[in-house]
Design goal:
Blueprint: H1 8-19, H2 31-45, H3 49-62, H4 67-79, H5 83-96, H6 101-114, H7 117-130, H8 136-147, H9 151-164, H10 169-181, H11 185-198, H12 206-214, H13 219-232, H14 237-249, H15 253-266, H16 274-283, H17 287-300, H18 305-317, H19 321-334, H20 339-351, H21 355-368, H22 373-385, H23 389-402, H24 406-425, H25 429-441, H26 447-459, H27 463-476, H28 481-493, E1 507-509, E2 515-516, E3 522-523, E4 528-530, H29 539-557, H30 561-574, H31 579-591, H32 595-608, H33 613-625, H34 629-642, H35 650-661, H36 665-678, H37 682-695
Antiparallel strand pairs: 1-4, 2-3
Length: about 700
């Protein structure tokens, strides 16, 4: 900012010289010279400066040692900008009177007007040595120091002057400008504020004040001042640019965009602002335009690392990781110690799944920041992605000890399970079991871990544990047919028949199953069950199996439930994957009101045969007893999907009840009507019709 320096001191000297005209001449001035001096003063008063000079020079020929004549002559020469002649005259005075501070001030003023600031400073300092009490000279020195860009010295002298002349506007303006020049915007804004508060109507430095406020993060006040600056001068590009930055800081991006557009349309070569402009465009998601502006800036300032970093961030934002890495690497060449830059590079490599390159940067970062938890986590994720579970797991555990984050825990458990399956493939069954157990203990809730445990226990011959974990896996992920298929194979593998014979289908009758209606009354009826095809086994084994089942049925009818269960389990030892026998055991436990075991055996029955309608139906009833209405509903829906006319429509009735108890009356009514369509029992139909009326 250019600071206007006034000729105030020089004017003061002239006034003093003119005042001399009314004084008696000095003792050295002869009468003839005195007359000429008075005539010179009169000519000066009439602005006839040539005559005044002639009279003074003639008087000097008469009284050549009179300082009044030389002082007057120097003043007039200065007035007509004849500075060299003025200096000659002042130097004559100095020779005669070397301790005259004001003469040195006048000499300093001439040098200042000539732009000879070092000479001016020498003269002002001489005056200061002679007459330090003259406070106005501090202002002169401050002005010259400012022009010499010795801003700290200028500030010191302006403050010394303002200690005495606190209301001096120009000195305070120059002080504010000096503070701005050394980027001390806090003090600059304080000085401008004093000027503004003192006289807001005459305040003219809105642009400078606004820029100072902007640089002290007072963007709201800065915008106010810069808007006023533009009101006074619409072409003030500096104010427009400052206002753009203020709006940008305030998040008023559309307004900032307008200001940048205005400035760059007028000064397209103003490339130093394109970085801020590009940052604004990036914030506005105008990514294509932002990239264009960053490229302008990079071309103009190829050594500024910020251009490369910021354009890389935009490329990263739009998923162009190759271009992002390209620019990040250029930035890294310019500052290889920038850790945040390395993080960005690592992140880009990670996002493009170049995990090896990402790991190289993660390791570099951790060398400088060994406790950086975020980087450690990213390193573990990269190792995890590379299936290096052995390296990833301890890092996950270390991070989890520092921050108990849910995502970290999930990643750790996922790695533990993946490692478990890897160990399982390598036949390291004990280590695999430990890995699966660690994940489950830490809250892993996916059936894949239990499936792995089941396979591991099966491999080492712990069949009971294998069976338990197959069942857990299936219950957690019932849609994973791989689990149920393998479990069925596992059950079948427990017995390997020697001779093959084909079983025939037979129709069996289950004991009565109670259905509870909405009123609390019970209706009973026998449900006929079609047995499934049993596995091929020996004739002897089949006969033994049938004998055990007949004995079990006998004990069942005689209410000897424990004995019946033992008989059925003996039968399963011979033919393990017999869904009907599994169902019979489930029915026994249901009558014993051990609903959990009933559910367990019904589930085994449908695992062995996923299309076993009786198994699904009884499982639905068992779930209903547990008030697990959602699973009950799913079971009955599966029955209907397998056989829409199942048991004369009782699946619709049961499904209707499940919906009714959930408060889903529309769905309940729909299924009750379907039951009526499939059923011929008049009493039951009447009961259901009444229920429909109540629900509607």
């Amino acid at each position: 900012m250019n600071m206007k320096i006034k000729k105030h001191l020089f004017t003061t000297v002239l006034v003093s010289a003119i005042a001399l005209c009314g004084l008696p001449s000095s003792a050295y001035m002869s009468p003839e010279a005195s007359v000429l001096y008075q005539e010179a003063c009169s000519a000066e008063h009439q602005q006839d400066l040539k005559t005044a000079i002639d009279k003074l020079e003639e008087a000097i020929t008469i009284s050549g040692d009179d300082i009044t004549l030389y002082t007057k002559l120097a003043g007039i020469y200065s007035e007509i900008d004849e500075y060299d002649k003025a200096l000659q005259a002042y130097n004559k005075v100095i020779k005669i009177k070397p301790d005259d501070a004001f003469i040195y001030i006048s000499i300093g003023s001439i040098y200042e007007n000539q732009g000879k600031y070092k000479d001016a400073l020498t003269a002002y300092n001489k005056a200061l040595d002679i007459f330090p009490e003259y406070k106005y000279n501090y202002f002169n020195i401050g002005n010259v120091q400012y022009q010499l860009r010795n801003y700290n010295e200028a500030i010191k002298n302006y403050n010394s002057f303002l200690d005495t002349y606190s209301q001096h506007t120009e000195a305070r303006e120059n002080l504010a400008a000096s503070y701005s020049s050394i980027k001390d915007y806090s003090n600059a804004s304080k000085q401008y504020r004093r000027l503004y508060d003192k006289n807001p109507d005459s305040f003219k430095h809105f642009s400078e004040y606004g820029i100072a406020l902007l640089n002290t993060n007072n963007s709201e006040k800065a915008a106010e001042m810069l808007e006023k600056a533009i009101e006074l001068n619409a072409g003030n590009n500096s104010a427009h640019l400052g206002l753009a930055q203020a709006y940008q800081d305030l998040g008023k991006n559309d307004l900032a965009y307008e200001q940048y557009q205005y400035v760059l349309s007028k000064i397209p070569s103003l490339n130093n602002v394109r970085l801020d402009y590009a940052n604004l465009l990036a914030a506005m998601k105008k990514n294509t335009e932002a990239i264009e502006q960053y490229n302008f800036y990079i071309k103009a300032f190829p050594n500024d690392i910020n251009g490369y970093k910021n354009i890389a961030l935009v490329y990263k934002e739009v998923g162009n990781y190759d271009k992002a890495i390209e620019n990040f690497l250029i930035a890294e060449e310019k500052d290889s110690k920038d850790i945040n830059l390395k993080k960005d590079i690592a992140n880009c490599y990670h996002n493009k799944k170049d995990y090896y390159s990402a790991l190289r940067y993660y390791n570099e970062i951790l060398t400088s920041q060994p406790n950086n938890t975020e980087v450690k986590l990213n390193k573990a994720i990269a190792l995890h992605a590379l299936n290096n579970y052995e390296a990833a797991i301890p890092i996950y555990q270390e991070v989890l000890a520092v921050k108990g984050d849910k995502t970290v825990r999930e990643n750790l458990n996922s790695a533990l399970v993946a490692r478990g399956h890897e160990l399982l493939e390598d036949q390291e069954y004990i280590r695999a079991i430990d890995s699966f157990k660690a994940a489950i203990k830490d809250g892993y809730s996916d059936g894949y871990a239990y499936y792995g445990l089941a396979k591991s226990y099966r491999a080492i011959g712990e069949n009971t544990k294998a069976s338990e974990n197959y069942e857990k896996a299936i219950s957690m992920d019932p849609d994973k047919t791989m689990y149920s298929a393998e479990y069925s194979d596992f059950i079948s593998s427990l017995y390997r028949p020697k001779n093959n014979v084909e079983n025939s289908d037979e129709e069996k009758v289950l004991p009565s199953i109670t259905l509870i209606d909405n009123s609390g009354s019970a209706s009973t009826g026998e449900i006929k069950v079609q047995s499934v095809v049993k596995p091929v086994t020996s004739t002897v084994a089949i006969k033994q199996n049938e004998d055990f089942i007949l004995e079990g049925d006998k004990n069942y009818k005689e209410n000897n439930y424990d004995a019946a269960v033992r008989n059925y389990q003996d039968a399963l030892q011979l033919i393990p994957n017999d869904a009907v026998t599994l169902l019979k055991i489930g029915n026994v436990y249901k009558l014993k009101e051990d609903n959990a075991k009933a559910v367990n055996y019904y589930q085994k029955a449908i695992i062995v045969n996923p299309d076993y309608t009786d198994g699904w139906f009884n499982l639905g009833l068992a779930y209903a007893n547990e008030n697990n209405l959602i699973e009950s509903q799913k079971s009955f829906e599966r029955v209907i999907s397998l056989d829409s006319d199942y048991n004369f429509g009782y699946a619709y009735y049961a499904l209707g009840m499940a919906f009714e108890h959930q408060g889903k009356n529309t769905e309940a009514v729909k299924n009750y009507k379907l039951f009526i369509k499939h059923n011929n029992d008049k009493d039951m139909i009447n009961t259901v019709q009444n229920k429909i009326k109540e629900l509607q």
